[in-house]
Amino acid sequence: MRKLVIFLFVFFTSASLNSANAVMPAALFGTAEIKAASLDALPKWQTVMKKIDREQASYDACRKNAAKCPSKAVAAWIAMLDSIKNKPQAVQVEKVNSFLNKWRYRTDSQNYGRSDYWASPVKFLARSGDCEDYAIAKYVSLRSVGFTVDQLRMVVVRDTIRDLNHAILAVYLDNDVVILDNVTPSVRSQDRVTNYAPYYSVNENARWAHVQPGKIILSLNTSR
Q: DSSP 3-state assignment of 123?
């Protein structure tokens, strides 16, 4: 926990807390948001975004010829995305969440023999993955069917019921924020999700630190 608090302090500081425009109105899970344009504090996110950029050619080839898909799972994923391309966004969200939640949860240790590996969709579809891998695959899926960057954020949260860290996808849709989560089949409004306390969120353009209203870190005591 001490390391997490120190990380958040660095995260907040690098987000330019003294900027008049840095603190945004309460949004995700009722928090105040501190925005930073730089993604340097999240190297794993930068790395996986680069992998996804390199995979785009294989997505395009797969659309033209299923035989050129990296796997049958990728072919099925691309076919699903193409089938919902012109559907209402609410339908697209439901279909993407349902399709990707069919993959069984696997830890990074099981897949890669190490902790905290962030997988691209091709890797996820081949091996499945853990919570952030589901969120990343859903993020890429919705971007590919027309969602804008501003509508999507991967969010790292604390699950206060299970007492563990977790990752989800938040989608800004029809004046609401809906949550796509690998632990439940349903897409829920954030107002119905009461057990998540967000640490940070990120998309391709920016990152946000999240602070519970009225809670200010006055000092850090690293001796505890």
A: helix
